[in-house]
Amino acid sequence: QVQLVESGGGLVQPGGSLRLSCAASGFTLRNGAMSWYRQAPGKQRELVAIIARTTGVTNYADSVKGRFTISRDDPKNTLYLQMNSLKPEDTAVYYCHAPGFGVWGQGTQVTVSS
């Protein structure tokens, strides 16, 4: 069964950090591009970061550039999103996505608030 399971969300103060994980099963992450999306209440889902299939080249939304880092651990078949210097506007449900396999995770809530 092809599946993505996110973890690592939670409540954090502005300026804090969180690391999201996305464990894949039923397929190999490095065989396709992988991405993180987020959706805030009342807003459309938006692309946050993407990592290319073989080169590992990364790309980010302007709003998170310099603060977020997407990475992949191939032996663990797991995708990560390191989020630093978090802002209240980063509050959203975060989803990992494997576009080549048409798979979405269930989402993990990130809330940035004092």
Strand content: over 45%
What distance lies between the first and last C-alpha atoms, to the nearest angstrom? Answer: 40 Å
The amount of helix comes to under 10%
Number of strands: 11
Poorly predicted ranges (pLDDT <50, ≥5 residues)? none
Largest sheet, described in full?
7 strands, mixed
Q: Mean pLDDT, rounded to whole units?
A: 96
The chain-level structural class is: mainly beta
Q: How would you classify the quaternary structure?
A: single chain
Number of helical segments with 4 or more residues: 0
Shape: globular
The ordered string of helix (H) and strand (E) elements is: EEEEEEEEEEE
Radius of gyration: 13 Å
Describe the structure.
This protein has 114 residues and is mainly β. It is built from no helices and 11 strands. The strands form 2 sheets. Strands 2, 4, 5, 6, 9, 10 and 11 form a 7-stranded mixed β-sheet that branches. The protein has a 4-stranded antiparallel β-sheet with strand order 1-3-8-7, with no helix packed on it. A hairpin with a 6-residue loop joins strand 4 and strand 5.
